[in-house]
Amino acid sequence: MTKLILGSRNKKKLREMLDLLGDLKLELSDLSPYPHAPEVAETAGTFVGNATLKAVTLAPALNAWVIGEDSGLVVPALNGDPGVDSALYAGTHGDDAGNNAKLLAELAKLPPGTDRAAYYVSTAVLADPTGKVVATAEGRSHGVIVDALRGAGGFGYDPLFLVPEYDKTFGELPPEVKQRMSHRAKAFAQLRPALERIAASC
To answer: What is the CATH number of the domain that holds 29?
Structure first.
């Protein structure tokens, strides 16, 4: 069975990929089984640039199909922050509590009534085992940043990201509802035709 590797060690991202693509006849994993996989510095300055760096570096190193994915939260009122630095907004990579606290603190500095609209971005890049980019996709989810954490589900900024049509944050919504509308689900859905072709050629 053909291997498809998510270029990440984030177990929550892997769980989302398994939920979205687990029906395909592909051997899905993240980087955990590959301790010697190169560390890819996210230095491109854009979501698509970082995702591409991961895909084209890891695919030939592992001799496998790789999805490089980069995602984050964009708040226009904060000039696009946290943006590509979403995971280390407060200074430590993956510090969800610190990142959420900093986001609320930065928004609190703005004038009352400031638009708190925000959107999540997920960019996914599929590279073949030679490192050639085969497909690129971007998904977005639009919402509003609330003024206090709501819900214990999801990860990252999910407890602050309100989805207006449900009047609930991603942290409050059941996983299966989030999966249908998340930025990552939208990006992976765009990659699906290419992945189906890979699975069919096994």
So the answer is: 3.90.950.10
Range of the domain at 182: 3-200
- Catalytic annotation present for 115: no
| DSSP conformational letter for 82 | B
> Which of 70, 128, 147, 167 is labelled catalytic?
70
Distance CA 157, CA 54 (A): 23
How many other CB atoms are there within 10 angstroms of residue 99's CB atom?
24
Cβ–Cβ under 8 Å, residues 161 and 170:
yes
Q: How wide is the angle at C-alpha 129 spanned by C-alphas 61 and 54, nearest 5°?
A: 55
Looking at the structure of the chain, the number of domains it has is: 1
Cβ pair 67, 128 in contact under 8 A: no
Which positions of the chain have pLDDT values less than 50? none
**Residues within the annotated binding site for Mg(2+)?**
70
What percent of the chain lies above the pLDDT cut of 70? 100
CA–CA separation, 124 vs 84, rounded Å?
14
